[in-house]
């Protein structure tokens, strides 16, 4: 594969190559007269206007969130809202307003959900504008950054390392340009592109640069949908959402036959008045529906997005919050993550008696030879001025796979030379004396580049063979001030940190050691890693720092960790991280990273602060842990409602509750507490098997609550007689159900904090207020009659609470999460 740019000594190389940028004076000194090469100017403003008028615009809608209409539709038009809406209308016709309160609660809940999601959308849309990649488009001879939606057919779009190809096109200029098409074709090796070659949207540049002419825009582009999905705020698959969907499916199956049986028993079997029977039938059906569960899930996620947005963290896919909460291994790229992107040259060690002044000229010429220098070469450019009399005749841009770059020069005195600049342990054979100096410098956490004179042609596959070491360029990397605290956070949260870098392993280990990473002293050179996935996974499990990792190896390492059951997050900012970011469970990109990394990452840290990651992890844990808590509350209610309905149908007696009773109980033991619990801090790491973990508590809780309530109801039916007996029986049963439900809440609220204790006490106090205030007694039809039955209800509830406590402890031992 020809991985270099050939530059004609007459100056007729491809426009934009280093050879075409040399000064006339330098060319004259070299004995040649350059031809003037004109770069294509791109479209004119008039041509752009014509294409816009014809609709030849890149009009693929790139949205960071759902539209406002979609949000309203998703919150209003749900299966359970339809059921409750019908029941609400019925109750408004046949019963007092008190028995229709559940409908107003649903309206309020739906409104809260819509408002929170719209707030979330506003936050996301604002962040998406900040984080949007803007390709450089050449028009009227001038290059400017434009939004992807402003590109028109025929535009000339410039490309550099890390840039994503946003529309289909044909290469117009190429400067040793290598494009990775693996995200489209699965082919891992980059493809060298020359003028006239096609490029596809969705691919990205890994080395070199150039420009291409857009031939297909909008929905006609090959990967238009890929480009859209890569930057859209999506509600894609997540265990939490799929688990809730599974639960709701089973709830529906249970609810339909139970509700039918309840309707028949109340309207046909019992000889009650029609309106009373309808009211009690609706009272039995409504609590079966866990209507607030989906709402609170949406609200928790929306609030999470808003909180992270305030910290300049763009969540491109909603389940990323959930996914990062489940992460137990985070893979970190050193450059740009643990260290800041910039570097400084701190030393030049001349080898083999080379002339230092000459070496400085070489470094200056190398810096000038690359129009798109990486961070290391930028430091060299800043430290050593260009040798103007030197002319670059060939160039080899840096790539992460090669670990070096190079250039061939025609020197001012007519001499010609070829130079390489890159990793010493790649360019030099093992045992070379210079490597001892390199190791000593690497142990101090310094980065070292080797300047070597090549004896082979730059386009030779063996260009690095027999290269003569000339100088060591010492670079100091700037550690991120927040990196040490962030690594300490991960260690405290039992999240294993793996530093995976393309740099020298010893240097990477020294940097990690300065930051206090456990295991930093035992570094692994990735060139010694086994190719077998299982063997690689074993090495990864027992080590924390890896150097000289190629882009493909990063991808393989992520897969190896996943094969051992780990949930892996990958952070990075360079094109060499794209494949690993894409395959990781969660990809995290820096806002200053390449366009390609931002496109495939689920989370983008717009402020480039590694210290934001703990906030993302904490937010995910808060959401998942709290949704698990409140889901148990909602589903306990569903279980006891279904069981109570079944017991009533089998016993052929009146259903004990009116809708107002269960609205009151649901509000005090589920609705209000769940809202606060869903937004409370929670640092527990998310665990798998959401449905199993919720149902193992909800089923025994619901069974105990239904049994205790029905027992009290039967006892009350034998105790009370007379015209008002049903009201007294209902009040006693309500008291038992409230007390058992409060015990469920008290267990769910553990471990206790002052806020949770106050919350539980406030709900208990509110119920006592209803029992004590006459007009509230009348409004909710709750009046305890006598002393025997109320105390019996309390005793039954106490027994139920004891059984519940024992049952949940047994479940913890028998079915551990």
Descriptive keywords:
817 residues, alpha+beta, 8-stranded mixed sheet, 7-stranded antiparallel sheet, 28 helices, 22 strands, elongated, disordered N terminus, ATPase_P-type_domA, transmembrane helix, translocase
Number of beta-strand segments: 22
Strand order of the largest sheet: 9-22-21-20-10-17-19-18
What sort of overall outline do the alpha carbons produce when their principal axes are compared?
Answer: elongated
What fraction of the residues are assigned to beta strands by DSSP? 15-25%
Q: What gyration radius follows from the Cα positions, in whole Å?
A: 34 Å
Structural class: alpha+beta
Describe the main β-sheet briefly.
8 strands, mixed
Uncertain spans, ≥5 residues at pLDDT below 50?
1-37, 226-237
* Distance separating the two termini: 53 Å
The mean pLDDT is: 81
- Helix coverage percent: 40-55%
Give the number of helices.
Answer: 28
Membrane topology: Multi-pass membrane protein
Keywords: Membrane, Translocase, Transmembrane, Transmembrane helix
Transmembrane segments: 76-95, 101-118, 250-269, 289-308, 630-650, 662-682, 694-716, 728-749, 756-776, 788-808
GO molecular function: ATP binding; ATP hydrolysis activity
Layout of helices and strands:
Layout: E1 5-6, H1 24-29, H2 45-53, H3 68-76, H4 79-94, H5 101-131, E2 136-139, E3 142-145, E4 156-159, E5 168-180, H6 182-185, E6 191-193, E7 198-199, E8 204-216, H7 224-230, H8 239-269, H9 274-285, H10 291-309, E9 313-315, H11 319-326, E10 329-332, E11 339-350, H12 356-369, H13 375-383, E12 391-396, E13 404-410, E14 416-422, H14 424-427, H15 434-442, E15 447-453, E16 468-479, H16 483-492, E17 496-500, H17 505-514, E18 523-525, H18 533-542, E19 545-547, H19 551-563, E20 568-572, H20 578-583, E21 586-590, H21 595-600, E22 603-605, H22 613-651, H23 659-678, H24 690-719, H25 725-748, H26 754-772, H27 774-780, H28 788-814
Parallel strand pairs: 10-17, 10-20, 17-19, 18-19, 20-21, 21-22
Antiparallel strand pairs: 1-12, 2-3, 2-4, 4-8, 5-6, 5-7, 5-8, 9-22, 11-16, 12-13, 13-14, 14-15, 15-16
Helix pairs in contact: 3-5, 4-9, 5-10, 8-9, 8-22, 9-23, 10-22, 10-23, 11-22, 12-13, 18-19, 22-23, 22-24, 22-25, 23-25, 23-26, 24-25, 24-28, 25-26, 25-28, 26-27
